[in-house]
Design goal:
Helix content is 33%, strand content 26%. The protein has helices at 2-14, 18-24, 44-50, 63-75, 114-124, 153-162, and strands spanning 33-36, 56-60, 81-85, 99-105, 125-136, 166-173, 176-182. β2 (56-60), α4 and β3 form a beta-alpha-beta unit. The model is unreliable at 1-13 (pLDDT under 50).
């Protein structure tokens, strides 16, 4: 019995803690939020529960993950989540200045043109809106994607600055780093 418990503890240590992320972002219960690269909804579901008077737009290019997310949203009985399939390098579905917050969790290292994605995130963000960018540390002591595929913190910071985001704060989330930004 002790071995499954240890395995569960280890997997939870390696997983991004959604509640910890929510503590650090300036989200309000009425905020409309875009979760870009939502995947299976690891952050989408907690964001939707917190922002119960807002609308959550969960986007991902993987149609299988979007289908799984739709099932999770249905099972959680959430009526404030819209799911959208997106195509890399294309315009994001939300209209200009239509969301209060944007979450880009473990996404920038996957895209060919992170600058384009950041410009799109900024386009859909309302003036004064916030963005959270979360990436895996680029260190050999951190398990995860191959080191050469990761985005170094300084490179991410430079990209965000180039696209006109203002750094509000930086957090260490164990295996991950997170920037909270303003438009």
């Amino acid at each position: 019995m002790a071995i499954p418990f240890v395995e569960n503890m280890q997997s939870s240590v390696n997983k991004l803690d959604a509640q910890r992320v929510l503590r650090h972002v300036p989200i309000m219960p009425y905020h409309d939020v875009a979760d870009i690269g939502a995947g299976d909804g690891h952050l989408t579901i907690p964001i939707a529960k917190y922002s119960y008077d807002g609308k959550i737009i969960a986007m991902d290019p993987d149609k299988v993950k979007i289908a799984s997310l739709r099932e999770s949203v249905k099972a959680a009985r959430l009526s404030n989540v819209l799911t959208r399939s997106i195509t890399a390098g294309k315009r994001l579905p939300p209209k200009k200045e239509s969301v209060d917050g944007v979450v880009l969790s473990r996404v920038l290292h996957h895209v060919d043109d992170p600058g384009h994605l950041l410009r799109e995130a900024k386009r859909i963000l309302r003036d004064g809106g916030w963005a959270a960018v979360i990436e895996l540390h680029k260190r050999a002591d951190v398990e995860g994607h191959p080191l050469e595929e990761r985005l170094a913190e300084e490179d991410a910071k430079s990209m965000l600055h180039e696209e006109g985001f203002r750094l509000r704060s930086r957090y260490d989330l164990g295996r991950y780093y997170m920037f909270v930004l303003r438009k």
